[in-house]
Structure formats: C-alpha cells, structure tokens
Amino acid sequence: MPEATLTATQLARLEAASPLLPAIDAVGREAMGHALCTAMRFEAATMRVRRLYTSNAEAYPLGGWKAKRDTAWGRHVLLEGRVFVGEGAAAIEAHFDDHALIARLGLRSIVNVPVRLGGACVGTLNFLWEAERLGLAHVATTRLLALLAAPDWA
C-alpha cells in the first residue's frame, strides 16, 4: 500500500480538520469494542481514499492512501454508497491490499461505512475487530457514528 510522506504542516491540517473523529472513535470503542478506527476522505477524480484519522498511526499513518479504482469494494462503498461488512480472513483478503497487515494486527472483521453529503460519497468511516463475526448492532452503530462524523467532511 503506497503511503505518502506528509510535512508537519500537512499533518497538522489533517488533524485539525477532524475534531469529531477522536470522540467518535472513543464512543465506538466503548459501545462496540473495536480494535482499530480509521476515516478516509474519498478523492473521486482519482478513485483514491486518503486517511484523515487513525487510532493506530504506527500501522496506518495519517495521510496514507489506498487506490480503489476498478475494485469491487470501491464500486460497492464509494460509488454505490453501501456499507461493506467483511468477516473472516477470506473476506478481508479478497477486498484489501493490506490484508497481511490487518492479519498481523489480529483483526478479523471490518465494517466500512460511506460518509455521504449532498447525495455523494465524500469518505468512509472504518472499524475493525479481533472477533471474526459481527452482530447487527455493530453495523447499526457504525452507520450512526458515520452520520455523526459527516460534518468533518463538509
């Protein structure tokens, strides 16, 4: 996964642009017990997502990006605006180039929620767990948290 090198000023801008995300991460962790939370801004022209929040900067630094052009995940989440639920190593491996890192971190399930403003996807809010199976409450809670996070993308 390519990672951009950002200047201190660029990193400060990313962090300042996300005042709600640390609180949303904390609320989600208390409610759902996730192990990783990230938020990505969608760059429609390039079909890339760029990280603007992370609960694990060592593994997933701010500003890092992922190419999603011509991927099933990109169509599903970014273009169609649908929630993605991946449970188990096979589902994660099928959709994420960084599946080996996800596995090394002990993460076995994921929910990606598109953040939409004005009918368009502007980013994603992402939660990962060590447990392989998720309940309906996990998906419902992540959708609610994405609604609360939407002002950060405005």
Question: What ranges have pLDDT less than 50 throughout 5 or more consecutive residues?
Answer: none
Instruction: Report the end-to-end length measured between terminal Cα atoms.
Output: 27 Å
Strand content: 25-35%
Number of extended strands: 6
The profile of the biggest β sheet is: 6 strands, antiparallel
Assembly state of the chains shown: single chain
> How much helix is in the residues?
25-40%
Helix-strand string: HHEEEHEHHEEH
> What is the global morphology?
globular
Radius of gyration equals 14 Å
Number of helices: 6
Average of the residue pLDDT scores: 88
Give me the side-by-side strand order of the main sheet: 3-2-1-6-5-4
How is this structure best described in words?
The protein is α+β, with helices and mostly antiparallel strands. Helix content is 36%, strand content 27%. The protein has six helices and six strands, in the order H-H-E-E-E-H-E-H-H-E-E-H. The protein has helices at 8-16, 21-32, 72-79, 89-95, 99-104, 136-149, and strands spanning 36-43, 48-54, 65-67, 84-87, 109-117, 120-129. The chain has a six-stranded antiparallel β-sheet with strand order 3-2-1-6-5-4, with helices on both faces. A hairpin with a 4-residue loop joins strand 1 (36-43) and strand 2 (48-54). Helix 2 (21-32) runs antiparallel to helix 6. The two termini are 27 Å apart.
